[in-house]
Amino acid sequence: MAAVVDVVEDAAKAAAEELEITKYYTDYKEVLKDDEIDAVVVVSPTNLHKDIVIDCANAGKTYFLRKTNGYGFPGMRGDGSSRKEEQCEVADWLYEAA
């Protein structure tokens, strides 16, 4: 792991110290500007996923996202539907930047 992001600076700093890494940010967009970062693991509130993964893809970063299918959003599953029988499943999303 190369960096940690948390909107609460003290939390970001504490996590970085615990993980023995030197980089921490309070804005994920700063990570996307960092040429030393190749990939991003998205662990944010569900309502923020769409914007973050689109920004990751646009920045050329590989990203990994795990979420329940019941919280689908348009454009990410193709049709954006969330069928009742899938609401308890977990989906792994891996986008590999070229």
Descriptive tags:
3 helices, about 25% strand, two-stranded parallel ribbon
In short:
With 98 residues, the chain is an alpha/beta fold. The protein has 3 helices and 5 strands; from the N terminus they run βαβαβαββ.
- What is the count of helical runs? 3
Mean pLDDT: 79
Largest sheet, strands/sense/barrel:
3 strands, mixed
CA gyration radius, whole angstroms = 15 Å
Low-confidence stretches at least 5 residues in length (pLDDT < 50)? 74-89
In total, how many beta strands? 5
Structural class: alpha/beta
Q: Reading side by side through the largest sheet, how are the strands ordered? A: 3-4-5
Shape: globular
Helix content: 25-40%
Q: What's the helix-strand series?
A: EHEHEHEE
Strand content: 15-25%
Q: How many angstroms does the end-to-end distance come to?
A: 21 Å
Describe this structure as you would to a colleague.
By secondary structure, the protein is an alpha/beta fold. The protein has helices spanning 9-19, 28-33, 49-58, and strands at residues 3-5, 23-25, 39-42, 62-68, 90-95. A 3-stranded mixed sheet has the order 3-4-5, covered by helices on one side. Strands 1-2 form a two-stranded parallel sheet.
Question: How is the secondary structure organized here?
Answer:
Layout: E1 3-5, H1 9-19, E2 23-25, H2 28-33, E3 39-42, H3 49-58, E4 62-68, E5 90-95
Parallel strand pairs: 1-2, 3-4
Antiparallel strand pairs: 4-5
